[in-house]
């Protein structure tokens, strides 16, 4: 390669690099922008040229009972996963950061393990297991537990990282001023780690809303989550209604990203 | 400092018996509904097949021997690994410049660019794969564009084959190589590159001799992540792979859901996982040599 001796060539390389990087950013964003664009297009087909602005595909979406049911079901499952993990994930993170002595690394490993293995394997494992312990997939309990397991590490990791950055002497000051364990937690620890909890919860919600493999294998008959409904719909249809569903899910994700960015900053995310 | 003196005292006060309950619910969840279920994949793969129930009475190794003697399954396994390796290499080639750029960027657009990297990760897999169907189908956006500029006369076959799966998976998993690399590159002290430059090395040489070796841990973490994710991906190959792009995950789900052959499907899943472990292990040994010289 040509060296740094010549100033002109350096700027050419710099420009080439900028163009390359810009192209990759476009590659990352293009499919998402495309889906949103086509969901507002009045034309019948998922193709260019755009024919004009229209909300007809969103109307089609909102008049479709299957999609509405699926959206509500997805929200229900994601909200339950988030609430359960907010409690048990935060408790576990505090235990590991503050109290664990023996087997601390092993506990940490098992707490993050669902992130380290492919989701499809976890889904298969739970499918067999629920059959063996006679829970089966007749009720929503199977799919719900699957979602809780897979999203657990997101809350655990984000709270752990908040605890790690939090100056412990504040807790000790509260203790030495006579505050009890619960009082110290509620007045000192909890406010300090709140951003980590919020980030972890938003993350868990978004991930649970998007999870596919777990839902595919563990769903009970007759109830589809939104990704499953979209997947089924696309087997037989290929029209902008699908783009409208996809758009809604994209808006939700970006709302979560903006909230995280405004409250704690995206760079503090852990996953 | 008083905090340091106070620490052991507080530690002593909170006896361990009173705090263990905090971790119990999480442990029950992850042992009861994560660790134990993984054991049932193994037991399931050893069960006899049965036509009347999910599995028969006895135990057998037949599902493994049948699968390993089947050229069709070897073909799918090979294709899965090839797709995984291609996606990993392309993701690294595309992800490295982005991570490098983000790590060096001081512009006020940096956080927007960071959102660009992060958002594909958080948008659902079905949605992203659907977007690629719009782009890659026979009268999709890519073929439209290529025909409009006159590069081709007839639509190219861009999906229902390994090519489509590879393109879409690269997009889907690219952030997973960028983010670990970004963390790694940001942790490298800029003084090192500056020292190399001031000693007369060119920018290229500085990159090859200083920055690249120091970013090996990030490369290793990112590539392993992308490889494991792409060989185990289900949604993307199922939606736009067709029969020409069918991978192991798609085959396993077909065994489990469509054919109701749970023991045989379990054996296939374990073969897939074992192959992944072997490849990651080999890769770790290879990259360990490159990393041994690191501080």
TrEMBL record, chain A:
Membrane topology: Multi-pass membrane protein
Family matches, as CDD domains: TM_PBP2 (cd06261)
PROSITE patterns documented for this protein: ABC_TM1
Domain of life: Bacteria
Keyword Cell cycle in annotation: no
Transmembrane segments: 16-40, 73-97, 109-131, 143-166, 196-218, 238-260
Residue span, ABC transmembrane type-1 domain: 71-260
InterPro entries according to UniProt: MetI-like, MetI-like_sf
The keyword Membrane is annotated on this UniProt entry: yes
UniProt keywords, alphabetically: Cell inner membrane, Cell membrane, Membrane, Transmembrane, Transmembrane helix, Transport
Places the protein is found: Cell inner membrane; Cell membrane
UniProt similarity note: Belongs to the binding-protein-dependent transport system permease family.
Name of protein: Spermidine/putrescine transport system permease protein
Source organism of this protein record: Aminobacter niigataensis
TrEMBL record, chain B:
Start and end residues of each ABC transmembrane type-1 domain: 77-283
Membrane topology according to the record: Multi-pass membrane protein
PROSITE patterns for the chain: ABC_TM1
Signal peptide segment: none
Transmembrane spans: 20-41, 53-74, 80-100, 112-135, 163-185, 206-235, 262-284
SUPFAM superfamilies assigned to the protein according to its UniProt record, in alphabetical order: MetI-like
InterPro entries the UniProt entry points to: MetI-like, MetI-like_sf
Subcellular location, record wording: Cell membrane
Keywords: Cell membrane, Membrane, Transmembrane, Transmembrane helix, Transport
Main location: membrane
Similarity comment text for this entry: Belongs to the binding-protein-dependent transport system permease family. CysTW subfamily.
Protein name, as recorded: Spermidine/putrescine transport system permease protein
Lineage: Bacteria, Pseudomonadati, Pseudomonadota, Alphaproteobacteria, Hyphomicrobiales
């Amino acid at each position: 390669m040509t060296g740094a001796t010549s100033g002109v060539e350096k700027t050419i390389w710099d420009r080439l690099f900028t163009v390359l990087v810009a192209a990759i950013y476009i590659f990352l964003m293009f499919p998402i922008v495309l889906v949103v664009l086509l969901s507002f297009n009045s034309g019948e087909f998922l193709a260019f040229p755009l024919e004009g602005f229209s909300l007809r595909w969103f109307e089609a979406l909102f008049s479709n009972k299957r999609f509405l049911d699926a959206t509500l079901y997805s929200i229900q499952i994601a909200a339950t996963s988030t609430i359960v993990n907010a409690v048990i994930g935060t408790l576990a993170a505090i235990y590991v950061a503050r109290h664990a002595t023996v087997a601390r690394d092993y506990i940490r490993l098992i707490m993050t393990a669902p992130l380290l293995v492919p989701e499809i394997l976890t889904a298969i494992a739970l499918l067999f297991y629920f059959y063996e312990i006679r829970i089966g997939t007749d009720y929503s309990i199977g799919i719900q537990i699957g979602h809780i397991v897979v999203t657990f590490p997101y809350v655990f990791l984000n709270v752990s990282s908040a605890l790690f950055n939090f100056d412990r002497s504040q807790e000790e000051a509260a203790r030495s001023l006579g505050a009890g364990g619960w009082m110290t937690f509620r007045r000192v620890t909890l406010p300090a780690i709140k951003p980590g909890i919020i980030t972890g919860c938003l993350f868990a919600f978004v991930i649970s809303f998007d999870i596919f493999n777990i839902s595919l294998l563990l769903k009970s008959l007759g109830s589809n989550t939104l990704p499953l409904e979209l997947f089924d719909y696309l087997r037989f249809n290929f029209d902008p209604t699908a783009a409208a569903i996809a758009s809604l899910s994209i808006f939700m994700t970006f709302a979560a990203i903006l909230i995280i960015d405004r409250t704690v900053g995206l760079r503090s995310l852990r996953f | 400092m008083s905090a340091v003196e106070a620490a052991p005292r507080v530690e002593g006060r909170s006896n361990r018996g009173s705090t263990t309950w905090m971790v119990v619910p999480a442990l029950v969840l992850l042992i009861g509904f994560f660790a134990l279920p993984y054991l049932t994949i193994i037991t399931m793969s050893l069960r006899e097949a049965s036509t009347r129930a999910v599995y028969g009475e006895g135990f057998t190794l037949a599902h493994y021997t049948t699968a390993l003697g089947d050229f069709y399954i070897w073909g799918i396994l090979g294709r899965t690994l090839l797709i995984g390796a291609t996606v990993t290499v392309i993701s690294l080639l595309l992800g490295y410049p982005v991570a490098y750029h983000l790590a060096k960027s001081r512009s006020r657009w940096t956080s927007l660019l960071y959102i660009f990297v992060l958002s594909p990760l958080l948008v659902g897999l079905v949605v992203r794969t659907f977007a690629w169907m719009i782009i890659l189908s026979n009268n999709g956006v890519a073929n439209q564009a290529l025909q409009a500029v006159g590069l081709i006369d007839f639509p190219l076959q861009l999906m229902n084959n390994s090519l489509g799966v590879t393109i879409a998976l690269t997009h889907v998993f690219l952030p997973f190589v960028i983010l670990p690399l970004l963390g790694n590159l940001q942790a490298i002290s800029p003084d090192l590159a500056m020292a190399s430059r001031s000693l007369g090395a060119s920018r290229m040489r500085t990159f090859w001799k200083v920055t690249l070796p120091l970013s090996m841990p990030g490369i290793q973490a990112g590539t392993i992540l992308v490889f494991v994710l792409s060989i185990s991906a289900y949604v993307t190959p199922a939606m736009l792979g067709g029969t020409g792009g069918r991978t192991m995950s798609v085959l396993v789900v077909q065994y489990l859901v469509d054919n109701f052959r749970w023991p045989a499907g379990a054996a296939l899943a374990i073969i897939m996982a074992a192959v992944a472990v072997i490849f990651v292990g080999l890769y770790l040994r290879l990259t360990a040599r490159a990393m041994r010289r690191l501080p």
